[in-house]
Design the sequence.
């Protein structure tokens, strides 16, 4: 090897962040961050995956939560971390909506990350009280047309997926629906049960027990086709709004410029973990469809959803600081 070639190789190696050499990764503890409350869906998925992935990686994965601004505090922290594979982000489907509605994010929501793989996908369920006036998508649209703003949607807060999905439905149907923001999904469902709002858009995990008990009536699912756990609930698309689809998800990301061999190692561990029966059954027990993607597929998913929610936010004039 010529001397200048050898020097070039040394320079390339030196350019890698400390500890980012793929051949000895990982050689210390890995931090997995997210921005949501302990015990919630995101936290449970993070802990379940961390426990299994640590077995294959041979290093402990610790969970660290940084709550605030709909998960963006954790995203900002990870995007600014060393791209060495030791600081990861458990991303939720809210991430693209946050990118669309918040004006002053201190990170690039797409190019600020090395996307690794999704873990699970799940739709949302439109729910009304069993004795409420809304019994179908057609009822909802007809009532909103008859009295603009007279139908109320209890959402998990301004800029939340439930809020954005409400506005997407309103925009497609050309009606006005009143957004009633709560401090999270559970309080919104409580508001529905107490009669304060006409309907909510909830995760299958939270809505499922109330549907099973008959406390609420499920009248629409946001997936393109009927969901495996609720085959009797019609889709929004088949109920008058063709091509409608809103699917949320969870997945892994690392800081941008994380070396591709490290991303590949993590991707392989995610795929292996999702094949473990106990892990898969737990995830499916939350009402999720368990599915990994390639890094490129996950990046495209995020890009498409940022574009969708940006369009919705512009049309509905939703903008947050």
Sequence:
């Amino acid at each position: 090897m010529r001397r200048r070639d050898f020097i070039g190789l040394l320079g390339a190696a030196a350019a890698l962040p400390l500890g980012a050499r793929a051949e000895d990764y990982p050689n210390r503890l890995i931090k997995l961050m997210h921005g949501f409350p302990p015990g919630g869906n995101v936290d449970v998925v993070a802990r379940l995956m961390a426990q299994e992935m640590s077995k294959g990686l041979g290093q402990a994965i610790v969970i660290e939560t940084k709550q605030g601004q709909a998960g963006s505090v954790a995203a900002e922290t990870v995007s600014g971390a060393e791209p060495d594979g030791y600081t990861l982000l458990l991303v939720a489907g809210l991430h693209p909506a946050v990118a669309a509605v918040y004006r002053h994010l201190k990170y690039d929501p797409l190019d600020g990350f090395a996307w690794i793989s999704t873990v699970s996908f799940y739709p949302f369920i439109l729910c009304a009280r069993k004795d409420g006036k809304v019994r179908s998508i057609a009822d909802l649209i007809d009532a909103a047309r008859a009295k603009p703003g007279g139908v109320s949607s209890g959402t998990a807060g301004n800029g939340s997926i439930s809020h954005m999905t409400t506005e997407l439905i309103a925009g497609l149907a050309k009606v006005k629906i009143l957004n009633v923001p709560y401090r999270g999904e559970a309080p919104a469902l409580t508001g529905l049960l107490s009669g304060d709002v006409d309907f909510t858009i909830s995760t299958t995990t939270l809505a499922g027990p109330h549907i099973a008990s008959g406390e609420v009536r499920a009248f629409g699912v946001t997936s393109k086709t009927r969901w495996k756990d609720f085959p009797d609930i019609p889709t929004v698309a088949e109920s008058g709004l063709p091509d409608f689809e809103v699917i949320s998800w969870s997945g892994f990301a690392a800081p941008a410029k994380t070396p591709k061999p490290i991303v590949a190692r993590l991707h392989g561990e995610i795929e292996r973990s999702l094949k473990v029966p106990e892990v898969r059954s737990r995830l499916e027990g939350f009402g999720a469809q368990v599915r990994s993607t390639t890094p490129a597929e996950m990046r495209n998913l995020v890009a498409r959803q940022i574009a969708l929610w940006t369009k919705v936010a512009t049309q509905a004039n939703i903008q947050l600081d």
In short: The two ends are 56 Å apart (CA to CA).
